[in-house]
Specification:
The protein is built from ten helices and twelve strands. With 454 residues, the protein is α+β, with helices and mostly antiparallel strands. It has three domains: 147 residues, 2-Layer Sandwich (Beta-Lactamase), CATH 3.30.450.20; 84 residues, Signal transduction histidine kinase, dimerisation/phosphotransfer (DHp) domain (Helix Hairpins, Orthogonal Bundle); 152 residues, 2-Layer Sandwich (Heat Shock Protein 90), CATH 3.30.565. The strands form three sheets. The protein has a five-stranded antiparallel β-sheet, sandwiched between helices. A five-stranded mixed β-sheet has the order 7-9-10-12-11. It has a two-stranded antiparallel ribbon with strand order 6-8. Strand 4 and strand 5 form a beta hairpin. The longest helix is centred in the first third of the chain and has 53 residues. The structure holds adenosine-5'-diphosphate (ADP). The site of adenosine-5'-diphosphate (ADP) has 24 residues, from helix 8 and helix 10.
């Protein structure tokens, strides 16, 4: 069942219950009032007749005639007067005798001072009446036709109003729930239109602080994040294609040129040399991408062990020197370590070495002297590494972007690369719960600082 229908039904049930309680109170108090008023009018009638008989000495026959005549038209009150010894003084209609008084009843009225009860639908009132020091007991009985008719018509009116109100309340409930859920419906329809091809669509939010607006804003923020990561994904793929296409096109062109006609040995060697260079670039790119994918894994899927940072740095240095013997890589301990723990962290050896190789290689390749100094310092909690070169530096504009995959700064023509290295390095450092930051002065130096917990 739709929430809208459920709400409408709930609303109708609640208001119908309130209305029912209200109708019950109205009917009940009208019923009580009628009863009370009728006993009062019985009392008045009883006193009037007692007065007429006992004080005004009106003939009993006259009163009985009046009673008989009135009875045909009205619901006349039947009055009887007794003395306390159950001697009948007066009776409106002995032949009818509605109340059928008994000595016990007369005694009870005398003792209690008053008695009210029902005989079927007839209301009966018994009361003592004192005249000239003598106590008489009067009974008065009648059917409150007028009162019961009024009560009946009130009952029917309440019943009809109740059912009509339920219909109205259901209709009102439906209308209001429709109105209340209109923005949700609108959101649903709009959200249906959002797909991978139009991730820029957003839900309308009236900028207010109501629940639906907050939902729309939160949904839009989620779409922002999705769109960004989708864009990044698209860029990533097109950047990869671009990075692969360039060296591949170069390899094809070089080999086609070489095979076109017969060439000298030197020319063949040069063509193969160029092709090899480009093939190496491709291999480097594919390795970097593979590492990037690895560093993007869930940390729980990557094996971590205790590592000595200085040993990983030495391995990285070794690896670089094998392919670039002319690079100069200095390692410095700023703090003398006493225990192994001081320079140990839990990490993935392969990934950390890859990160350090990237930083060291960049330092060397972007400086004329191909030299980098790596300093290690530590305290109880952290190990700080500084990769400092005196190279060409990075412009302020580039500093913010160099950690973006495939981004190469405006100094890129100075050295070969694919723009993956720093993005991969940042990912690896973050995987180790560390931080990386950069500071640079163009034409003077670049310093990368890495902080990891030991
Ligand atoms: P690549 O070195 O393959 O171009 P990186 O991701 O390693 O890619 O670096 C991104 C960019 O950051 C480089 O293209 C370069 O512009 C800049 N950069 C990184 N390290 C240095 C450095 N030590 N000195 C100067 N520029 C640097």
């Amino acid at each position: 069942m739709k929430i809208r229908t459920r709400l409408t039904i709930l609303f109708t049930i609640i208001t119908a219950t309130i209305l029912l309680a209200f109708a019950f109170v109205v009917y009940y108090s009208a019923k009580e009032n009628r009863e009370k008023e009728f006993y009062t009018s019985l009392k008045k009638e009883a006193i009037t007749k007692a007065h007429l008989i006992l004080e005004a000495k009106v003939e009993a026959n006259t009163l009985q005639d009046i009673y008989r005549t009135n009875r045909k038209l009205l619901d006349e009150v039947e009055v009887a007067i007794y003395d306390t010894n159950f001697q009948m003084i007066y009776h409106d209609a002995v032949e009818l005798d509605l109340v059928k008084e008994t000595p016990e009843m007369i005694n009870k009225i005398n003792e209690k001072g008053s008695l009210q009860f029902y005989l079927d639908d007839f209301q009966v009132l018994g009361m003592p009446y004192v005249y000239e020091g003598k106590t008489y007991i009067i009974t008065a009985a009648a059917y409150d036709k007028y009162g019961f008719n009024k009560l009946n018509s009130l009952f029917h009116t309440l019943l009809i109003v109740f059912f009509i109100s339920i219909v109205f309340m259901f209709a009102a409930g439906r209308y209001f729930s429709k109105k209340a859920f209109a923005p949700v419906l609108e959101m649903t329809n709009k959200a249906r239109l959002i797909s991978a091809t139009n991730l820029d669509l957003r839900l309308d939010s009236n900028g207010q602080k109501d629940e639906l607006s907050i939902l729309a804003q939160t949904f839009n923020e989620m779409l922002d994040r999705l769109e960004n990561s989708f864009e990044a994904q698209k860029n990533f793929v097109s950047n990869i294609s671009h990075e692969i296409r360039t060296p591949l096109a170069a390899i094809i062109a070089e080999l086609e040129l070489a095979i076109n006609k017969e060439r000298s040995l030197e020319e063949y060697q040069s063509a193969i040399g160029h092709a090899l260079n480009d093939a190496r670039k491709l291999a480097r790119l594919s390795n970097s991408l593979l590492d990037f994918a690895k560093a993007s894994y869930d940390p729980s899927e990557i094996s971590f062990k205790n590592l000595r940072i200085d040993e990983v740095l030495l391995d990285a240095r070794q690896q670089i020197l094998q392919s670039h013997p002319n690079h100069k890589i200095d390692l410095h301990f700023n703090t003398a370590f006493e225990k192994e723990k001081d320079i140990s962290i839990r990490g993935n050896e392969y990934l950390l070495k890859t990160a350090f190789v990237n930083l060291i290689e960049n330092g060397c390749k972007f400086s004329e002297n191909n030299k980098i100094t790596v300093s290690i310092s530590f305290d109880d909690q952290q190990i700080k590494l500084e990769f400092k070169d005196q190279g060409i530096g990075i412009s302020t504009g580039d500093l913010k972007a160099i950690f973006t995959p495939f981004y190469r700064g405006d100094n890129k023509s100075y050295a070969d690369g694919n723009g993956i290295g720093l993005a991969l390095t940042k990912k690896i450092i973050e995987l180790h719960n560390g931080e990386i930051e950069v500071e640079s002065v163009v034409g003077e130096r670049t310093v990368f600082r890495v902080i990891v917990n030991n």
